[in-house]
Oxidoreductase
Amino acid sequence: WPIATLTLRVNGQAHRLAMDTRTTLLDALRDHLGLTGAKPGCNQGACGACTVLIDGKRMNACLTLAVATQGQEITTIEGLAEGEALHPMQQAFIDHDAFQCGYCTPGQIISAVACIREGHAGSAEEIREFMSGNLCRCGAYPNIVKAVQDVAA
Ligand code: FES
């Protein structure tokens, strides 16, 4: 299979990487860049554990080919904090105990950031609807909604 040299812009930095053209963005982030925040869950677009922002829009990195994201700005959970200061949504997840095992948390937080940015945090119902693609096996949903409402307020 063809190997290509791709330029990926991740969290404000450009990286030139050689990889199989079939590599998903999720595998490129995790295996080529060592950014393991986005998690593999279902690998078929059903769980949201792999959620990242591409040009500000949330996407399932498991369904996106890395080659297709060249020229776009990818933001992962690792890119949200400003130095030592957590992103307000990261802090809100801590403040509201919005996780248990934490496996889904990076994807939840990325979706939560998109939820507010895209104006879907007007009510608990609206937040639940927008976040419905991010599954949590521990059932932390009520506190996730509280965290989003806190940041949206
Ligand atoms: Fe991508 Fe489940 S791993 S949606």
